[in-house]
Amino acid sequence: MGKRYFCDYCDRSFQDNLHNRKKHLNGVQHLRAKRVWYDLFRDAAAILQEEQTKKPCRKFLQTGQCDFGSNCRFSHMTEQDLEKLSAQVQGEQRLRELRQEGADVPPGTIEDWLEKRAKRLSAAQSNRYL
């Protein structure tokens, strides 16, 4: 049968040879899955800056769905989402400033980290099926 290549981004495998691997790595599905994966690790400030430069998606605002999903060039965030994201960015900024000043800041608990991780994973899986 030969060797098989498993792509972690796309969660699929295929026969491993130069032609198949090049075709897969340059494919639209792989590039989208890879983008979604790396978007999970972007900081809130970068996401906020990007979303503020985009115009709102009319189709998403009217129906609650968009055919383009995460690949849409328009923003799918509501005003409330942007406010929450802005508050999160300000909180992270204050925390960074406190740490630079040398203030004693208690680290987050493992439960907080697990909760954030679960939210990110569920968001990624819901975007994968869009």
UniProtKB/TrEMBL annotation:
Domain C3H1-type as annotated: residue spans:
51-79
Q: Which GO terms describe its cellular component?
A: U12-type spliceosomal complex
Under Pfam families, the record lists: zf-CCCH, zf-U1
Q: Which Gene3D superfamilies match?
A: 3.30.1370.210, Classic Zinc Finger
The record's subcellular locations are: Nucleus
Q: Name one GO molecular function term.
A: zinc ion binding
Please state the residue ranges covered by C3H1-type zinc fingers: 51-79
* Keywords attached to this entry: Metal-binding, mRNA processing, mRNA splicing, Nucleus, Spliceosome, Zinc, Zinc-finger
Kindly provide the name given to this protein in its UniProt entry: Zinc finger matrin-type protein 5
The major lineage groups are: Eukaryota, Metazoa, Chordata, Craniata, Vertebrata
